[in-house]
Input
Amino acid sequence: MLPLRDLNPTQRVPIANFTLIAINILVYFLFQAGLSMRESYALAVDWAVVPLTITRAGITPESLLDIVRAMFMHGSIAHLAGNMLYLWIFGDNLEDRMGIPLYLLFYFACGFAATFAQIAIDPVSDIPMLGASGAIAGVLGGYLVLFPRVRVRGLIFFGYFARMADLSALWVLGFWFVLQVLEGFASLGSLMGGGVAFFAHIGGFVAGVVLMWLFMLAVPQPPHHERHEMLYQRYDARQGRGGWY
Output
């Protein structure tokens, strides 16, 4: 499924999530768009994460800065668009529930976990790692824990045809994670270090699940069935059909 929206209205404007999206877009169009392949590669080596460099030099202030910068860089407009779509759909609800400071801490913690997961799998790679995918995978993991029954609306493709459908977040995000695991382990038998960093996605997602579980222990949440009912009462109210807001 290609998700287009979730039926999960928020109570507050997601300022932090909008800001993350805006920074990602600005970084791409100010610093990366229009570069040749050689120039793009040189910029990524200078600004993003090179696993072999971290393996050899260890964790330094410069390597930590590289990890943060890499979270806002993308290899193409399609890479950027896909990541921002997922962040737009799923990030606002986490910010709404966690608040801005905790959400940002959660986002960057998942991004760091994703980076180190990929480095652990391929520590001698000299290919730069870049993209918000790892941090956003953490957002997906957190969303799955917090809102497993929320309906996600999107397109399901059948060859050249597609139809709109609503599925629960448990199915949409659970299938996404299973796909990352299958493709990640399949990639171990091929040349490593290039292409999609599947283990960054896996590491980020697992970090998101664990961190959201800890958040729910620290901040008691209503039972799943009550949250489900509240969300759709709020959704009905937004649609002008009455109900709780």
